Amino acid sequence: MEITNVTEYEAIAKEKLPKMVYDYYASGAEDQWTLKENRNAFARILFRPRILIDVSKIDMTTTVLGFKISMPIMVAPTAMQKMAHPEGEYATARAASAAGTIMTLSSWATSSVEEVASTGPGIRFFQLYVYKNRKVVEQLVRRAEKAGFKAIALTVDTPRLGRRESDIKNRFTLPPNLTLKNFEGLDLGKMDEANDSGLASYVAGQIDRTLSWKDVQWLQTITSMPILVKGVLTGEDARIAIQAGAAGIIVSNHGARQLDYVPATISALEEVVKATQGRVPVFLDGGVRRGTDVFKALALGASGIFIGRPVVFSLAAEGETGVRKVLQMLRDEFELTMALSGCRSLSEITRNHIITEWETPRHLPRL
């Protein structure tokens, strides 16, 4: 069967992967309300396309923290990619580089920062979890910087791991042939078997629950890399993030894997964008499966989006080729959406190109 959209990879991944692995990638927290809402909320945003505009040339290029990329579609950090495919993060890194976009490597990758850097050129960010042992954090950040990573995406929504019931049922743990490669030499690379989720036990033992805004400032003293704060859902926190020196904000609910019944990220986006008043770029992850979704996020003020699950599902299905295809399909769909909406560059995508279900016609511009 020919694959014609991003979503179709999920069923193939489900067929190919062991149940424990597929469930780990696919599931959300508790009732999984937010998991469904991350998708459903996009469907409540409609287009107001403008017509009879010359769209023979479409420019999707943009810059993120000063780095030029081919499109505002980037790769989110997803953990333990070698569970999906033997080449894991290597394949993802090559695919992102070939697409001319940014890959974010997870702290909990099954390939190290050095190994990913060895795949060749590419703009890469490093997602950071702050461990109780700050020496470990310092060492990791320095290694990422030395390996040529360009920014830190600091995950701030995980003082404790969300309750993911399929991981509890499956007694999730990292397969014995794999390690969390960045921590291998520090005796933190293995996950013990647990009587619930092995990852939840690992997080409880290693990740720092005392993490606070002062640590965002501390991070800036140990690295010159810009810091993106990942996991902001409110205007209040967006303002504090800027005061704390964040170079950018990622509106994220951790793929609906942490606190259930938070809004979809696309629903929280505009509040965060308004609070930043253009002082720092705002990005979005969560629920993006179509080029139309990318356009909607940009219309609501995002500077770009990140995709997570589509990467691991396509990686499981077809390795590097699959990830390349996902990035290409989203690019092609986004380009088509721009053309059919009458936008030739990202700067032409405005709030007036969409209507949200919660608006009444009086919100619309006067003709």
UniProtKB/TrEMBL annotation:
Reaction(s) the record says it catalyses: glycolate + O2 = glyoxylate + H2O2
SUPFAM superfamilies membership: FMN-linked oxidoreductases (SSF51395)
Broad EC category: oxidoreductase
Sequence positions that bind FMN: 77-79, 106, 127, 155, 230, 252, 285-289, 308-309
Entry keyword set: Flavoprotein, FMN, Glycolate pathway, Oxidoreductase, Peroxisome, Photorespiration
Cofactor(s) of this protein: FMN
One GO cellular component term: peroxisome
Superkingdom of this protein's organism: Eukaryota
Gene: LOC108856778
Taxonomic classification: Eukaryota, Viridiplantae, Streptophyta, Embryophyta, Tracheophyta
Species: Raphanus sativus (Radish)
Assembly, per entry: Homotetramer.
Gene Ontology terms: biological process: defense response to bacterium; hydrogen peroxide biosynthetic process; oxidative photosynthetic carbon pathway
Record-linked SMART domains: IMPDH
Record Pfam families: FMN_dh (PF01070)
Name of the protein described by the UniProt record: (S)-2-hydroxy-acid oxidase
Keyword match Transmembrane: no
Family statement drawn from the similarity comment of this UniProt entry: Belongs to the FMN-dependent alpha-hydroxy acid dehydrogenase family.
Binding site for glyoxylate: Y24, Y129, R164, H254, R257
Catalytic center residues: H254 (proton acceptor)
GO MF terms held by the record: (S)-2-hydroxy-acid oxidase activity; FMN binding
Pathway it works in: Photosynthesis; photorespiration; glycine from 2-phosphoglycolate: step 2/3
Places the protein is found: Peroxisome
All residue ranges annotated as the FMN hydroxy acid dehydrogenase domain in the record: 1-359
Gene3D superfamilies: Aldolase class I
InterPro entries named in the record: Aldolase_TIM, Alpha-hydoxy_acid_DH_FMN, FMN-dep_DH, FMN_HAD, FMN_hydac_DH_AS
EC assignment: 1.1.3.15
